[in-house]
Amino acid sequence: MASFLGYGRKTGGEAGGLPLPPPKLRMNHASEKEDEVYCRHAVFLVRAVLAMLEVDSLSKYKRGFDGLAEADILDLGCGTARFLHGLALEGMLPRKFTGVDVQAKHIRWCRDNLSGRGNFHFQHVDVQNDRYNPSGRATIHGQIDPAHHDADFVMIRSVFTHMRTAEAVQTLHEVRNIIAGDGRVYLTVNVAQNAEAWTDRPDGRADGDNLLKVQFNKAYFENMIDEAGFGVSGFAENVENQCAYLLRPV
Ligand SMILES: C[S@@+](CC[C@H](N)C(=O)[O-])C[C@H]1O[C@@H](n2cnc3c(N)ncnc32)[C@H](O)[C@@H]1O
Questions:
Q1: Nearest alpha carbon, ligand 1 atom 19
Q2: Which Gene3D superfamilies does the UniProt record give (predicted)?
Q3: 124 CB less than 6 Å from ligand 1?
Q4: Predicted local confidence at residue 13, as pLDDT
Q5: DSSP classification of residue 248
Q6: Per-residue pLDDT at 111
Q7: For residue 110, what are the domain limits?
């Protein structure tokens, strides 16, 4: 059967001229262990972002960049740099891309395999997170290398979905401190109305898998956004099974 990009079911190849990560490093849905699914989801993410940026461009608020290819992008919680793979597949390699993550092995793979392929940079931060870096010793405050401040576009996909409230608040404030004044943040999070302020595993299937699927009360999360100094420029109810916000500094 013909498949997306002709990859079939094999794993560990290349996409858009960039090496793909070994399946064991891939997160998100288990099906992403197959190159075809990983690539399809990466492209879907890029298109979801473009759709929100398109709506944003109709607003009165001026953005500091036009297309993603012209942007300086910071991907916080980059994992395997899946967003960069999606951009490569869409022919939109950015002017600059910086991936930051608390997992050293993911940053190592990105550095070893992607750094030389463009103006791409990867930074490990030893930020404490009960799911991904329980022994981490820092908060996000002051951790991002100043060389990577002033990004036009900050991607934070499926990261607030694994955070306690304090970490989410600190992250929003830190991103507000370092983003370009006319930049944008795209983030995904589970939010629901008429819900508890914060809960892990809102489906009630607690099984000791810490911070697998965090959910915030929608108004509670939007107050956090406001208090960090952002306004909401866009909202989508369901992108890859999570809610997505586009934020602008205010
Ligand atoms: C579910 S994965 C998503 C990876 C990637 N954004 C994607 O969509 O493919 C969540 C990632 O966030 C990272 N992470 C969690 N807390 C973080 C923090 N405070 N700062 C940076 N990265 C963090 C994890 O190590 C993990 O790689």
A1: 127
A2: Vaccinia Virus protein VP39
A3: no
A4: 87
A5: E
A6: 98
A7: 41-249
Q: Ligand 1, closest atom to CA 79?
A: 27
> Ligand 1 within 6 A of 102 CB?
yes
Q: Is the CB of 127 under 6 A from ligand 1?
A: yes
Kindly report the CATH number assigned to the domain that includes residue 202.
3.40.50.150
152 lines ligand 1 (CB under 6 A): no
Domain assignment present for residue 12? The answer is no
- Give pLDDT tens digits for 162-186: 999 999 999 999 999 999 999 999 9
In 34-164, which residue ranges form alpha helices assigned H by DSSP?
Answer: 35-56, 82-89, 104-114
**Number of domains composing the chain:** 1
Q: Is 17 within the bounds of a domain?
A: no
Spacing, Cα 172 to ligand 1 middle (Å) = 14
The set of residues, in sequence order, having a beta carbon less than 8 Å from that of 192 and lying 6+ positions away, is 202, 215, 216, 217, 218
Mean pLDDT, the chain, as a whole number? 93
